[in-house]
């Protein structure tokens, strides 16, 4: 390692620890969100330094970008209702108080022990030679792609990726189920956009983003890239278009939106089942078919991921107002539960 | 394509495809999704049961790679038994839910918050079902993590379908506990992967994890899974979430969802770690005993019907952990009675608790309230639901000939054989407390001579679904031998 490399690594590590500490200690939500995004971007630098550009890209796009945007969105809704303060508005709003000191102590002590123990064990123990990376490299030509990450995600462990898409669909269905007549985000369709910055940004950024997303999907088979990165980029373009009023906000009520959300998962499953009579195992691609099938699945997934992310951003469910008629009168008799829940209910 | 490969595909991807169908949210397709999901899991688990009985444990190397490069499904008696009970409870609960949420698709309430949410019950539940089936067949540490995420998200969303502020808060809390549990599990996975370079359960078991890193990994994963299983003292999130959910959701959460993380704990401690450490197993048994006593006493003190049943879940889950210390006499030499007894209890609890929550749902559906005092006299109007609750409760308490009785008897016998008197005392006291809180509900329901006046008729199907589940819990006791044989295929150390 060169001296410059060492300095860079040390700077990244110090920055990460500093940002994380500050993030945990701050009592202001907005500051915490900004710190979270900075932390995500620094973390993606750390992945670059560790030689994992795929993860760096995903961390920057999803960890810092999409998650940060979702946090900001939530923050805006919260402050509209209750304002930001030195205390977390969420805690104040549901009427509970901070957990008791003994509980915090036990929890903090447990986490500290776990982290120290894991760190100590990892530093001290001799590891087995990692044979899986060699195995992956050796059999990569059989997967139909040249990027080992794509090979693992779409072929060796394609089943996991399929279920990860199911996680996204579950999150989407969960958010849709919370739709209680919430106010939507963005301009109505056809409303003139008078914001010159937004106008210019849409004109310039959207085509570039779309082209980049298509490229990332395409290049994923040989270079860092793939459906998750491309999907989150495309989602960025989608959010811009929705905010600018060019596209109507996607909703559960719209059939094309639901088809696009479920399409990636459905296509993936049907591909897996289609090969079953030919090869005998789910998702066991027949010889010569791996590359085209992977590319097709990635393209469908890119669209699904993008639509889910836009929808998560644009359609924020409202917190239901307290309705005395619906509240159960039952006070919990469980002292342990009360300690964790605070005063609520009494 | 072997029978294992065919039926495991059906049992996992049937409900997943059905969730796509149900996501269309049109009433006719919602029903089609539930039917497709129920049929595919019933047929698929029957096929796997047959295959396991004929050929012993089997596997399905997904993508054709095999472990450690790819992911394998592993099909043994324990997994198939859990699949089968999930299919039975799931199919009857789907039938119930179709009527329960059916009212909400009527035009008058269609655009109310509850009506909007109800359209997403079917897709969420089918995703949850897929996750459970995936867990019961998974032979890969990371794959288990992904299935846990689907399970946690869809389960929390089902809690919040009950449109009350309390249910929303309970659902959010459940989501947070669930995510923390998953992250602890993921930490354990990462530690094991760093140490051994494989994610395959079979591969890890062959290596035989030992030393500080695997011990920390097991501790982290155990805390995470115990939080998700609501093992005492991590149970505080369960009563508000399970009691707050809409009735079919409560049945699914209490009967099935908590068994998913329990299954992973059993797989980790026995199949992967070959029994782990005796101290750890005893600690789990002690926490289980705490759950039995604490949960039962609090169940007795509740004034709301669903809360009472939810605390009963906390207590009954304790029994499943009493199995752990009874399974440790010698390395790799195990106590078959403790194994089959504990797992039979898990299975019979699924049937009985689903019956009780659905019956309670019928009672509060009829009187539009959930307080014990408000259901007084309801037995006269809803004899079938009353019967379902009673029979389910007796099965929980372990009265013959229920499956709960066979399970407890096997567990007691194994404790006698190994002279573990403490566990015997806990099991016995817990049984008495169970009878007490079940009788408390029955007494209220029978309380008055005349039926309550404000009464909403309950759809027949909802009554039948609860009664059939209760009957299944009883009938299982009569045919427990077949289930015991199935549970022994592979045993706790399948590899």
Plain-language structure description:
The complex is a heterodimer of chains A (346) and B (495). Chain A has 346 residues and is mainly alpha-helical. Chain A has helices at 3-25, 29-49, 53-82, 89-93, 101-124, 132-139, 148-156, 158-177, 196-219, 227-243, 255-274, 276-279, 290-314, 335-341. Residues 86-95 and 323-346 of chain A have low confidence and may be disordered. Chain B has a domain at 277-495. Chain B contains 21 helices and two strands. Chain B is globular and about 65 Å long.
Q: How many E strands of chain A?
A: 0
**Share of helix of chain B, binned:** over 70%
Largest interface: A-B, 78 and 87 residues
Strand content of chain A: under 5%
Structural class of chain A: mainly alpha
Sheet having the most strands of chain B: 2 strands, antiparallel
**Order of strands, widest sheet of chain B:** 1-2
Oligomer: heterodimer
What is the terminal-to-terminal distance of chain B?
22 Å
What characteristic shape of chain B results from the CA principal axes?
A: globular
Topology, pairings included?
The complex is a heterodimer of chains A (346) and B (495).
Chain A: H1 3-25, H2 29-49, H3 53-82, H4 89-93, H5 101-124, H6 132-139, H7 148-156, H8 158-177, H9 196-219, H10 227-243, H11 255-274, H12 276-279, H13 290-314, H14 335-341
Chain B: H1 3-22, H2 27-55, E1 58-61, E2 72-75, H3 77-100, H4 107-110, H5 113-118, H6 121-137, H7 141-159, H8 165-196, H9 201-207, H10 212-229, H11 238-244, H12 247-272, H13 278-301, H14 305-326, H15 336-367, H16 378-381, H17 383-397, H18 403-417, H19 421-446, H20 460-478, H21 480-488
Antiparallel strand pairs in B: 1-2
Helix pairs in contact in B: 1-2, 1-6, 2-3, 2-6, 3-6, 3-12, 3-15, 3-20, 3-21, 6-7, 6-12, 7-8, 7-12, 8-10, 8-11, 10-12, 11-12, 11-14, 12-14, 12-15, 13-14, 13-19, 14-15, 14-19, 15-17, 15-18, 15-20, 15-21, 17-19, 17-20, 18-19, 18-20
